[in-house]
Specification:
about 60 residues; mainly alpha
C-alpha cells in the first residue's frame, strides 16, 4: 500500500473506528455537548480547542 493511502486509512480509523485501539473519536465524542466541550478545567485546553486543533492538522495533511 502506498504511504499516502496508509496514512489516510489510519486517520479514517482514528476518526470512525476500526483501529487497533478499538476507540474512535466519533463514538467517544458523540455524547459531549458544546457546553461540556467548552468547559475550562484549570489551565488546560478544553475539549473543543483540542478537537479544533486535531481537525486543523488533519485538513492540512
Amino acid at each position: 500500500m502506498k504511504l499516502r493511502k496508509q496514512i489516510a486509512s489510519q486517520f479514517r480509523e482514528v476518526y470512525f473506528g476500526g483501529n487497533w485501539t478499538s476507540v474512535n473519536l466519533k463514538e467517544t465524542l458523540a455524547d459531549v455537548n458544546w457546553q461540556q466541550a467548552a468547559r475550562k478545567v484549570y489551565s488546560f485546553n478544553n475539549l473543543a480547542r483540542l478537537v479544533y486543533h486535531m481537525n486543523y492538522y488533519v485538513s492540512g495533511c
